[in-house]
Write a structure and sequence with these properties.
With 209 residues, the chain is mainly α. 76% of the residues lie in helices and 0% in strands.
Length: 209
């Protein structure tokens, strides 16, 4: 590699490190446990009420809006890891989903797609597609189409109508994610909007100013 190429690579690595470190302000480190707690509460509500939803990525999206993609990805990964350690090992298999949700939410927020309620429609759709694309192969390949979530009930109903397992799992996942991730995006937006600006990280202040 030439000296110019090596310098360019080093410069890109430095920019990447700076980009990641910008997410992790002191305020962000305080908010990450809050995001994990919101995820846990949402999941508990969905489980207790037997809802065919997850509601366990609202906190991840909130951190993505307020702090950025890398902080949100860490929040999502830690939330799933903690839930697995508390007796729900299924969450480990689905860890790529909240990580992707955090990254996508953070990058979309950074580009202004959470600046208003109307704009939040786009992230709601994008996050639905992202979650469906990542979760469906995990459901089919790892769990044979059946998990402990309410999505399995929809999948089983579709299989009973004669559809293939992959088609049924993908259709069920998209239908559930459309309500779950789409609704969660708006809930996260309004939670962030309710936080006083003096408690927001720099990205959150830019979005809600």
């Amino acid at each position: 590699m030439s000296s110019t190429g090596a310098t360019t690579s080093t410069s890109r690595i430095e920019r990447f490190r700076e980009n990641v470190s910008e997410d992790f302000t002191t305020t962000t480190w305080v908010l990450i446990p809050l995001g994990i707690g919101i995820n846990a509460i949402g999941g508990f509500i969905a489980s207790t009420l037997k809802l065919p939803l997850f509601l366990d990525n609202i906190g991840t999206m909130l951190i993505g809006i307020l702090a950025g993609p890398w902080a949100a990805a860490l929040t999502g990964a830690l939330a799933n890891l903690i839930q697995a350690m508390l007796g729900n090992p299924v969450q480990l298999a689905f860890m790529p989903v909240p990580v992707a949700i955090g990254l996508v939410t953070g990058f979309l927020a950074r580009r202004g797609w959470f600046d208003s309620v109307k704009k939040t429609i786009v992230p709601a759709i994008v996050l639905t597609v992202v979650a469906t694309i990542i979760a469906t192969p995990i459901v089919v390949l790892v769990f044979g189409g059946v998990t402990s979530s309410g999505t399995s009930l929809v999948t089983a109903t579709l299989v009973a109508t004669g559809r293939s397992l992959v088609e049924s799992a993908a259709t069920a996942q998209f239908a559930v994610e459309f309500v779950d991730k789409g609704g969660s995006a708006f809930i996260a937006y309004f939670i962030g909007k309710s936080v006083p600006s003096r408690y927001l990280p720099p990205q959150g202040q830019d979005i809600y100013s």
